[in-house]
Design goal:
- It comes from Micrococcus endophyticus.
- This is PqqD family protein.
- By secondary structure, the chain is of the alpha+beta class.
- The chain has one domain.
- 48% of the residues lie in helices and 14% in strands.
- The strands form two sheets. The chain has a three-stranded antiparallel β-sheet with strand order 1-2-3.
- A hairpin with an 8-residue loop joins β2 and β3.
- The chain is globular and about 35 Å long.
């Protein structure tokens, strides 16, 4: 969900929204592959990504090297996992 440039994600069963920073929003955009909630109703699921691929795509969005964002991306993904928003399967993150 986005509103005025901000964004929030939520696991419906938990009912607690997570407000995203601009950087978190950029990582989320990588995870969802630019899809909207409406796309989820009609489009095929996107391909899963490794944590390294998420870091590389996020870094590219900011004109940085992947190693410059890897720790922050990893921490953000861990937080999303902790809240049940994403789940790793076989070492990769299925796109929500």
């Amino acid at each position: 969900m986005t509103d005025g440039g901000g964004a929030a994600v939520m696991h419906l069963a938990h009912g607690v929204p997570l407000l995203l920073s601009p950087t978190g929003h950029a990582v989320w955009d990588v995870l969802v592959g630019g899809r909207t909630p409406e796309d989820d109703l009609t489009a095929a699921p996107p391909s899963p990504l490794s944590e390294e691929a998420v870091a590389a795509e996020t870094a590219a969005a900011f004109g940085l090297a992947p190693e410059d964002v890897a720790a922050d991306v990893g921490a953000f993904l861990a937080m999303l996992e902790q809240h049940g928003v994403v789940v790793r399967v076989g070492g990769v993150l299925p796109r929500p």
